[in-house]
Amino acid sequence: MRSLLSVLVFVLAAVVSAISTSGNRLLVILDDVAEKESYSKFLGDLESRGFQLSFENPKSESLALFRLGERSYDHILFFPTKTKGLGPNLTPNLLVDFLNAKGNILVTLSSGVAAPNSLVSLLAELDIQLPADRTGLVVDHFNYDASSAADMHDVLLLPPPTRIRPDVKDFFGAGAGQDEVLVFPRGVGASLGASELLTPILRAPRTAYSYNPKEQGEVVDDLFAAGEQLALVSAFQARNSARLTLVGSAEMLQDKCFEASEVSKADGKKVAGTFNREFAKRVSGWTFNEIGVLRVNWIEHHLEEAGATNESNPKIYRIKNDVKYTISLSEYAWNAWKPFAVPDSDALQLEFSMLSPFHRLPLTLDATHSSDTAAAYSVLFKLPDQHGIFNFKVNYKRPFLSNVEEKNTVSVRHMAHNEWPRSFVISGAWPWIAGVGVTVTGWLAFCALWMFSAPVGAKRETKKTQ
Amino acid sequence: MSAEPLQGLASVGKGQSTRGLLRVIILALIAGAAISSRLFSVIRFESIIHEFDPWFNFRATKYLVANGFYNFWDWFDDRTWHPLGRVTGGTLYPGLMVTSGVIYHALRALTIPVDIRNICVLLAPAFSGLTAWAAYLLTNEMTPSSSAGLLAALFMGIAPGYISRSVAGSYDNEAIAIFLLVFTFYLWIKALKQGSMLWGALCALFYGYMVASWGGYAFITCLLPLHAFVLICMGRYSTRLYVAYTTWYALGTLASMQIPFVGFLPVKTSEHMPALGIFGFLQLLAFLDYVRSAIPSRQFQTFLWLFAGGTFGLGLLGLVIATSAGFIAPWSGRFYSLWDTGYAKIHIPIIASVSEHQPTAWPAFFFDLNMLIWLFPVGVYLCFQQLADEHVFIVVYALFGSYFAGVMVRLMLTLTPVVCVAAAMAVSALLDTYLSAKSPKPQETQAADGSEGKKAVKSGLRSTGKPVVGVYGLWGKSMMVSALAVYLLVFVLHCTWVTSNAYSSPSVVLASRLPDGSQHIIDDYREAYQWLRQNTHEDAKIMSWWDYGYQIGGMADRPTLVDNNTWNNTHIATVGKAMSSREEVSYPIMRQHEVDYVLVVFGGLLGYSGDDINKFLWMVRIAEGIWPDEVSERAFFTPRGEYRVDGEATETMKNSLMYKMSYYNYNNLFPPGQAVDRMRGARLPEVGPNLNTLEEAFTSENWIIRIYKVKDLDNLGRDHASAAAFDRGHKKKKVTKRKGPRVLRVD
Fold first, then answer.
1. A151, A194, B396, B601: least CB-packed within 10 angstroms?
2. Which residue ranges does the record assign to the OST48 N-terminal domain (chain A) (predicted)?
């Protein structure tokens, strides 16, 4: 009864805020509430998608990320703040705890404002390096906005991002118009380390570089990063699928960048429209678990053999059993769970492993168990000829998709003494069986012969001796 | 000395039936003494299973009782040797568990509800009573004096050499195996003496039971053929021997092959080849016997030599070829270590690492057998005097038993029965001589001399022809008898003392004395196992050194990586490597094996010597055997060749996981710089070790058991060292100037 009630409450809650898969409490950190006017469209979009925004000053005493050990917010959005530190309520350790508790963070920076210490050390933990002086400015002398930064060349006009690998779904640039551009004004570029949890969403063009505007030299002698090594918007997804996105320029989320009329390319051409609004929606949507979220609905494995009981998820199998494994996956896209379709150039694989995989098999779509909201993938295979404690493992980790790491442990036992073929079935055993038969009958025959053949001579001898 | 009461006593035992009744009563009393002297541990502590292996036997018995025989037979145990599992049903000697199971069900059928644990705890004492009875029977076959048998039963009942493995709670294979050993020998002697197929078949039956119970059955498998061989060499081949041996061998081998763990070993391995060889040899002899009766003796001589030489040569050649071609497995390592005590140390560290596989120190013989050890040669000498077939057996058994007992501590167990039998013969011979109160009359002696005169003349030696000199003085007799009585009393005292002090500790629970003399129980093991049972997930895998595997499985009911059934040396070496390597090396190993908790035993606080740091070198050696490039024993010794744990320990030592786990946080118990390891008497460095990949989960009251939880991978993808540094509040240093070429990210 109690569980039923809680399910009911949960369903109601889901209906009210059917938006993010991980809650709608969004904390927005900014210096001044007045600032939010310039982001009105972006914040308005967020609100219209169902987020409850609470605005806080980093120095606010009432600010607490955790209450009684539980997260008070589901997501945090950092706008650039002038304060050097973020105070005791937003220390890097607290932010790491927030990520570990599956909270999501969207960080925006600006070259005009020094990034707070707290965020810098948090990003350093994630292997994201910011320019040393914290006021590195990304400039590009080829792709700049001629109307607003004709001299400084620090307002970049970029094509919408494309997919970074062929097997990755294009979440951020898909559907952009041919001549739509992304405006990236006065931003900070970051240099990403080799961590596999990091993925750049938007990279600087080959001609861009980062420099310190305070150094007015002719030559940039110590270059922080240049070209595609400079990540303008980058995504981090922790092992528990908590997400952190770093947007190098907060200004690109401002209302003025959402307007197309105000920019023109370096060669003077007017731009049809900016992609910023859609891009902002997608970046925030991804960060706050509205897209790219995978869910494992159920996993089932059973013995697929003639005459066997089809018990689901048994704890133990025998070697060389035929086993069917099925996993059901859904993907969340903005407001609904949809069946997850594996990209054509990718494969969803099942590992059957003990210490190391004995099988690594591609899972294929199983239409009979799929539905409108879930896709089932299955594979039928023969267990290896090795007893032990095995795991059915599905380890599907792709950029921008939440991690699927499922492990189901089963024991695989040896053949029991009565599961071997009987000796008379094996043709190789016939000579031996015949041998046994011959020996037995021979011995019996000998005994009979011995017993029924009276020793005639012996009788006489005994009589004589008597 | 008053002779009347003695004579009165003797006259009571004159009648045949009275004697029989007395014998039964005495045997029952001996069995009672044997059982009650083994109950020290139950009285002092509680009804608890002891040590290590018994915990597995206990667990297996519970499985048998709960799931029935066939499930036990096909038992695949997925809670040991994770993730390999163990085909337990096919790799154990089921005799012990089945015996307990049968007793359990029999008692239930009699509507006596008994906890299976109590059956297991009391099985060994119960069988020790039977062993005493078997020793009585065996000795009675050796000598006509009935007192020898009773003495042997008494010795067998309380000899510490046997008690060491059969106190209450010591639920090990040896608990029933020694009874089976002695009883099989008795049946063998019986079969041999009578040339009876029935006794031979019974002997084979009990041999089969023995095979089902203990790996030491190979002792019988080698001793019986050896006895037969010696008899043949002495020219004592007879049809009795032929019948007894062939019956035993044919039926016994078939019986032994029914045990899955033994399977085809009796026809495949070198240990079993002597039995097969003697079996063939006996067939040849029987054939020759037949031929000799058929052809003239002159021709027979040449025929014999050609035939015997030819067959022997062919047989040997065949054996060598079969061994080298791999049809017959060569001697196993454990057997090599029986011949060359240094063998195991060099080649198989895992065998050498077990303390009971060490060569015996000579005081152990006195400790375990006391006066029996010097009575033993006397008994053997008496056997030589008579030297019938059965006495040859005692001589052969004595020789081999002594050798093996000298090589391996635990084989003292197989020596004990023959020592008891021989010593009982010696004591009874002494008592028979000195206890008869009546003095021999000179005339009688003369008469006896006269009747034996012919024999004496035959022997030809003048000295033997002299009249037998009797013991006339009562004074001398009583001196001798009272001395023996004192010895026997001291023997009983010694046995009781040894049993109570040395062999009755469960070793799961440690007892110590407080300054005021009261007993203090150190119960860290059970405390820790109980913690594991109640605070960890049911399938949490525990990594520990293999010594504790059975106990964790039995008491904490958690899966383990390795345990005392050391069937997979590589897996043990893997654990050894994880323990002896740096954290960065150990962590991937632990991840791969899905380890959740690591358990170490640390005796530094209490001065407990059986801890893991003291066993550590064995871990290193075993790991080095498999990964000589990655683990090196030398690196754990200082340049001066010392094994140290203090500030001057080597870097490898200090960085090893075992060292870190043992001394983690140990400093906090002491004032700064005062931390002392009381076991090794070492002053520890001021700064204790740092653990990144593990976190302390539990430490028992006296710090004997320490349990660590293996951390998951870092959520943010950092390595554990930097994650731990971040948690401690160290900010990452900014990389301002990079040396060398830039590392570019490639996506």
1. A151
2. 25-287
The CA distance from A358 to A367, in Å, is 27
Structure tokens at A127: 């292997």
Residues comprising chain A, all counted: 466
**Distance between CA atoms of B102 and B94, rounded to whole angstroms?**
12
Chains A & B: contacts with CB separation below 8 Å: 93
Question: What is the rounded distance in angstroms from the CA atom of residue A287 to the CA atom of residue B289?
Answer: 97
For residue B747, give the nearest of A99, A200, A390 by CB distance: A200
Of the candidates A193, A239, A387, the beta carbon closest to that of B76 is on A387
Contact indicator for B147, B431 with CB cutoff of 8 Å: yes
Q: What is the DSSP string of B357-372?
A: GSPPPHHHHHHHHTTH
Q: What mean pLDDT do residues B493-513 have? A: 85
Q: Is pLDDT of B469 > 70?
A: no
A68 reaches B (C-beta below 8 A): no
CB-based contact B527:B534 (threshold 8 Å): no
Question: Could you count the other beta carbons within 10 Å of the beta carbon of residue B365?
Answer: 21
* Contacts A125 to B, Cβ<8 Å: 716, 718, 722, 726, 732
User: Can you state the angle between helices B174-194 and B389-407, rounded to 10 degrees?
Assistant: 150
User: What average pLDDT score do residues B17-30 get?
Assistant: 91
- Pairing between β-strand A273-274 and β-strand A180-185 as defined by DSSP bridges: parallel
In this structure, are residues B666 and B645 in contact, taking their beta carbons and an 8 Å threshold?
Answer: no
pLDDT (tens digit per residue) in A229-262 = 889 999 999 999 999 999 988 888 888 888 766 6
Please report the ipTM that was assigned to this predicted complex: 0.86
Mean pLDDT of chain B: 86
Q: In the structure encoding, which two tokens stand for residue B352, read together?
A: 């050498």
- pLDDT tens readout for residues B91-147: 899 999 999 999 999 999 999 989 999 999 999 999 999 999 999 999 999 888 878
Closest CA to A225 of B742, B739, B735, B734: B742
What is d(CA B644, CA A359) in angstroms, rounded to the nearest whole number? 46
